[in-house]
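Let's practice the habit of predicting before peeking. Look at the sequence and jot down your guess about where helices and strands might fall. Then scroll down.
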Amino acid sequence: MTANTLLSHHVRGASFTKASVSKHSAVLIALGFLILLIATLHALSPYGLTYFDISYMSAGGVTLALASIGLTLVVLTGDLDLSGGAVISLVNVLIASVSHDGTIPMAPLVLLAFGIGALIGAVNGLLVAVLGLQSIVVTLSTMFICQGVALIVMATPGGSVPAEFSAALSGDLLSGLVPMPLVVIACACAFWLLLKNTRLGVNLYAVGSDRHAATASGVSVIFTRFMSFTIAGMFYSAAGIFITALTASGDPLIGTSLLLQTFAAVVIGGTMLGGGRGGCLGSLIGAYVLTLLVNILLVLNVSAYFSPIVDGTLLVFAVLLNTVSRGDISDRIKAVWNACTDASSPRTAGARLARIHLDRPDQAHEPVTEVRAGWLHRHRAEIGYSIPSYLALAVVILVTAALMGGLSWNYFNALLVLSSFLVLLALGQGIVIISGGLDLSVPWVIAIAGIVFTGTLSAHPDVPWGYVALLAVLIGATVGAVNGMAITLIGIPPIVTTLSMNSILQGLALLYSDGTPKGVAPDALKSFMSVQSGGIAPIIWFELIFIALGVFFLSRSTFARRIYAVGSSDRVALLSGVGVRRTVLASYVVSGTLAASAGLLLTGFNGQASLGMGDEYLLSSIAVVVIGGVLVTGGRGGFSGIVGGVLFLTALQTLLNGTTLPFAFRSIIFGLVILGAVVALRERSPR
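Done guessing? Here is the structure:
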């Protein structure tokens, strides 16, 4: 072999090694961080890490690891799945409620649990892959449906499982030599390694990298996406089975806290949101990174209130780390700088072309004939998408009137008052969705606005409450600005940004209030929400004016036209001279401001603020936007239809409150309503 040949082999080998390291850099970083955490725990422990410590820590991370593997399969194809935590809760309560007396063998229950997970995943896959619906909205709906079913099965924690079942999954193997949780993890890893080398495993990456190219190459994109959701559902079931064995009881809310953690584990493990890169082994490492970090915080006696902040911050940090490892961050900074300074950038060039066109002398005096169509013709599409929400509202009102033997003005007065919070939220959420985004930070923006408002007034009673209200609203605007900057300048996906922000705000609210919100709403705000003048609550006049301004804003303002342009195609909008980043940033600022304002109104209505006071408005704020005819992928819809969706959902909730149905049914019905609206008003997304 010649010297040149040896040199060629050396260069190719070095290039291969460099490419391999770059490809797996995020996983290697996560693995290094995991080793560092293990070493830290070993140093903090008086006797080092014992067999008991290893068994305990391995058991504590299995549930999150299995759920993260399931989510990874979906993310690899470019989709998202928010239903994992609810499936875990459902499986947990089903097993604990049926097996508590020990009369039913556990093997059939375990098989049934896997079947339930596969069925839920198959439904998600059918709606997303076959019908072409948006995965975020579909899985958010199934999340609430599964959560409602779990609450029906078991309203409060309870139940039990046989001791043998718990020992079989959380005990030891080979006479105490190997913890069973490690065996479970080994089986999950073996399954992934086998799947990765099958045609389906290869297709997962192909579909996530480029669906059009995958289709051209003969890959069945629909089948691949369908199977990713189905197998993911089975992994969620496996997580539910294991946590049932670990706790030996059932809890209908046990999977709620896992939503953010599963996303964090997937991203920490190097899987790219958007698909095509990553793997389940990295997600497993990410799950144990989070588990060990929590253990270290417990050893250091750090307040549990910091846990949501740590989870949210870690998720954002992991996304940033992956961005840096891909080299995208420098490109994005250059793009932002060029867009702001370079006269040849698309935005500036588009504006310059517009100015040249307007300044041309040969066209300066040409007569312009403008044929303006009638109002009905110009808004016929929006009216068509809005009508279903008002027809549904009419049906609910008629059913309510039939059940109550007629309706008085008090009913409509209450309907408008109860809808006032959602009207504000819906405009903000609607603007974000029309621009192509989604705001999941709404619940704790509402809560922290109310908590800071009453807490500040309690600590400083001499300060006028109007100034404190302004402070709370500014907090919401600031949160929206941070969301917008993270999305537009850094490139963090909206769902990751707002989900992380929601978790961080939860921790900040807990720290600020020390777990118990203080103070009450001022009497003037209470009167604004409840005291009637001439049979009409003052908030109703405000609501009607707000609706009129909102309709005008989304139909006639320049900013609204930019929102629709960005939602339809951000690339085309950029080439047309629209400031895409400024528009998206402003949409999140509006959403945060209106969410904080809704928190103030809700505080005045209830008389005080409370932790979790905004939780029930997350699905509602998205549901009314979709029911009102807004396309979940952006670019279509109007506020008049959204108002119809608000009134319909509020009337439906009022009707359900007047029945003997359990509270959990409301979550199920809301989820079914939004799914029905998405199916009925959908526009097929690319497959």
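How did you do? Confidence is low (pLDDT under 50) at residues 1-17, 339-371.
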